[in-house]
Amino acid sequence: MSANKKLTIEDIAKKAGVSIKTVSRVFNNAPNVRQQKRDIVLGVARDLGYQPNISARQLASKRSFVISHFHDNPNTDYVSEIYEGMRRACSEEGYYAVAEKLNPQKGSYRQSLLDYLLRFEVDGLILSPPVSDDQAVIREIEKREIPYALISPGKKKKRAINVFIDEKGAGRSITDYLINRGHENLAFLSGLNSHAASRQREAGYWEAIEEAQIPKKNAVRLSGDFSMRSGFTAFDMLVKKAPKTTGIFAANDEMAIGLIVAALGKGKKVPEDLSVVGFDDSPFARAMWPSITSLAQPVDEMAHLSTKKLIGWIHSNILEQSRFEFSTKIIERGSCP
Amino acid sequence: MSANKKLTIEDIAKKAGVSIKTVSRVFNNAPNVRQQKRDIVLGVARDLGYQPNISARQLASKRSFVISHFHDNPNTDYVSEIYEGMRRACSEEGYYAVAEKLNPQKGSYRQSLLDYLLRFEVDGLILSPPVSDDQAVIREIEKREIPYALISPGKKKKRAINVFIDEKGAGRSITDYLINRGHENLAFLSGLNSHAASRQREAGYWEAIEEAQIPKKNAVRLSGDFSMRSGFTAFDMLVKKAPKTTGIFAANDEMAIGLIVAALGKGKKVPEDLSVVGFDDSPFARAMWPSITSLAQPVDEMAHLSTKKLIGWIHSNILEQSRFEFSTKIIERGSCP
DNA sequence: CCAACGTTTGACAACGTTGTCATCTTAGCG
DNA sequence: CGCTAAGATGACAACGTTGTCAAACGTTGG
Fold it and tell me: Under a CB-based contact definition with an 8 Å cutoff, are residues A54 and A35 in contact?
């Protein structure tokens, strides 16, 4: 909460020659304050280093100034990046960012949410995969009319902020990238099929294959589950099912790493014998050797924007725009230069 | 961030036939309340599902009920585990857990801290490496008399909660583990030398070597920087400097992975030709193939305990015990069975 | 049985904001 | 120039706790 020492709205009011209510208005960007007074108040506040006391605000306004991120994703890099984007936005707006890892062992996501809401008040929620696709959770949130944002949801919601990338388009562009580099025998290494994103990426893969008129028999699908190990074992499958494959598109970086490690272990050279493109541009994609060509989505910015828009929604009580698409970029690295 | 609906201390007081102050005392575990009344109040509160309103508490008591974790560690798994332990403890005690990644680009850690404290009030701080070794930061905290905890500090502080493992002992036990498995040519792959932990682990390594009377020429030190890539390049150095080495102790898992990947790429077999033990028991140690034998420290518990003790300190204003040592365990896996 | 003292209890004023509503300005218009 | 409506401003009561301090209650020893 509050600030430096013990400056209150009253000190500012006195010094600025206005009432405390006017100061309050200024700090809440409320209408009906003459620009001139606004400037004076802001000037005085800056000079004195005033920061509003959050607790008092919470108490008086019955808002919590808390935005909570609900997640259950084992990928801590991803979660951290979301948290960082959120934190940045919250910090700009005077909100608190908190994160809550849902524990599926404690019953459903829905139950975890209910437990949480019983104990804490939040002004807004941010859900990321796989929680962002749990319709039971979403129903509870909508029932309570809590503003919320969905990051990369499988199914966009009308009454929510949706931030996402074009998963199918991303799948296409990775596949095209491989094709343009002369690969004629391709493989897609899928993630968990229950994740909408994996299915959409795959759809893009097939679309690109078709469009490039690559014979179906020269393109395979290997199933994985997003884990490093599943990438590792997928390599054996690849050798068996499609030994001529030279270009691989893995639905995430971890599987790409697993597959590369397996390939190196069997004496294959990457990228000479086998080119691999991953997805997510995770820190490991950079750190590995060979480093991994990967499609980057601006997770930090997605979280930042959704938090900003969420706070806007909370303040105005109006959801202006519900869909925000972000563009992606293939980061060229060693595994498929 | 209050509760369920709109129950206040007054509702409880009325129903229990006492004054609001007594209810307040009960909820703060304050002394001088007859046990009988205490039970009545707690009973009523439970029946009605009352939760105290945190904002009002904050405002009236001038406490913030916020514990903040200051960190700057690129290992998001580690940071997340700390956050989770903290969050659990905070949740049990009705506190908020927040995390702040310090940005060294914005000047010193000290400056980041000052900026933060100017904007937010916290009741306690938790520092983890490398921030837990920044004496300038610690000085500022002590100057303000904010209770704080250090996780794995290089230098324990008298007026703080210190939670740690025996780094040197851990280094010894990993080295002994390798020696007991018959390895006679060993290597230690160091982390950044500026990290006290790396130096201590190395000290344990040499102690074990000496005690086992292994000739100094059969034991080498390779320098790394905790990054995967440094593990990768360390392999070349190993081949050059000590090709007979069969047992390797890496100061963290990432370097162990890098080294293993390099070795596999050169046709070496792990663990047959080269056995590797890592440090941290990170998720990747489990996921890799071969999975990596690694020394696990109970990070979650360390964070949980330090948060609990910190809150105790905040409440009683007395620091009862300042040092808490945790024990570690080598998790046997494929890279050195 | 009473004085003296510690323990328990409660009334009421903070805490620093925002909400409500009344009042004072200002601008627009005939 | 006067009237009206809209805009700007402020006084004061919430908000739900804890802090302070005084009063009531119990217990002990004489």
Answer: no
pLDDT at position B5: 55
Which positions on chain D have an atom < 7 Å from some protein CB?
7-12, 14-20
Residues contacting nucleic strand C by the 7 Å CB criterion are A 2, 6-10, 20-21, 24, 27-28, 50, 52-53, 56-57, 59-61; B 17-22, 25, 31-34, 37, 56, 59-60, 62
Mean pLDDT of A52-71: 92
Backbone torsions φ then ψ of B151, nearest 5 degrees: -100, 125
Give the amino acid at A96: Y
Q: Phi and psi (nearest 5°) for A329? A: -150, 135
Strand B329-331 with B161-165, pairing: unpaired
**How far from chain centre, in Å, is Cα A234?**
27
Report the alpha-carbon distance of residue A190 to residue A234 in Å, rounded.
Answer: 10
For tokens 């469009």, name the residue: A211
The CA-atom distances, in angstroms, between B19 and each of A248, B2, B9, B39, B58 are 71, 20, 9, 15, 21
Q: Is A21 helix (H, G, I), strand (E, B) or coil?
A: helix
Residue A277, strand partner residues: A249, A293
B228 vs A: CB within 8 A: yes
Q: What values do phi and psi take at A39, rounded to 5?
A: -65, -45
What is the C-alpha separation between A21 and B220, in angstroms, rounded? Answer: 71
pLDDT by residue (tens digit) across B192-235?
988 889 999 999 999 999 999 999 999 999 999 998 889 999 99
Sign of the four-CA dihedral A196, A198, A199, A200: positive
Q: N- to C-terminal Cα distance for chain A?
A: 50
Q: By the 8 A CB rule, do A53 and A8 touch?
A: yes
Q: Exposure of A327 by Cβ count < 10 A (0-12 exposed, 13-18 middle, 19+ buried)? A: exposed
Instruction: Give percent of chain A above pLDDT 70.
Output: 99
pLDDT at position A266? 87
B54-108 confidence digits (pLDDT tens): 899 999 999 988 999 999 988 889 999 999 999 999 988 888 898 988 877 777 8
DSSP-derived pairing of the beta strands A186-190 and A219-223: parallel
* Residue A234: other Cβ atoms inside 10 A: 24
- Inter-chain touch A289–B262, beta carbons under 8 Å: yes
Mean pLDDT rounded to a whole number for chain B: 92
pLDDT tens-digit readout, A180-204: 999 999 999 999 988 889 999 999 9
CA dihedral of residues B30, B31, B37, B42 (deg, nearest 10): 30
Taken in order B225, B231, B235, B238, is the CA torsion positive or negative? positive
pLDDT band at B2 (very low <50, low <70, confident <90, very high): very low
Closest to B205 measured CA to CA, from B194, B185, B219: B219
Reported as a pLDDT band with limits 50, 70 and 90, residue B264 is confident
CA torsion through residues A32, A309, A99, A84, sign: negative
Q: What is the CA radius of gyration of chain B?
A: 25
Model pLDDT, residue A5: 55
Q: How far lies A230's CA from each of A79, A96, A244, A271, in Å?
A: 21, 38, 20, 20
Cα–Cα dist B309/B315, whole Å: 10
Q: Are strands B148-151 and A148-151 parallel, antiparallel or unpaired?
A: unpaired
Return the number of other C-beta atoms located less than 10 Å from residue B228's C-beta: 24
Tens digit of each residue's pLDDT (9 = 90 or more) over A9-22: 999 999 999 999 99
Report the alpha-carbon distance of residue B287 to residue A229 in Å, rounded: 6
- The number of helices, as runs of H, and strands, as runs of E, in chain B is 13, 12
For each of the domains in chain B, give its residue range(s) and CATH number, in order of start: 9-61 (1.10.260.40), 66-166+299-328 (3.40.50.2300), 167-296 (3.40.50.2300)
Nearest DNA or RNA nucleotide to B33 (CA to C1'): C8
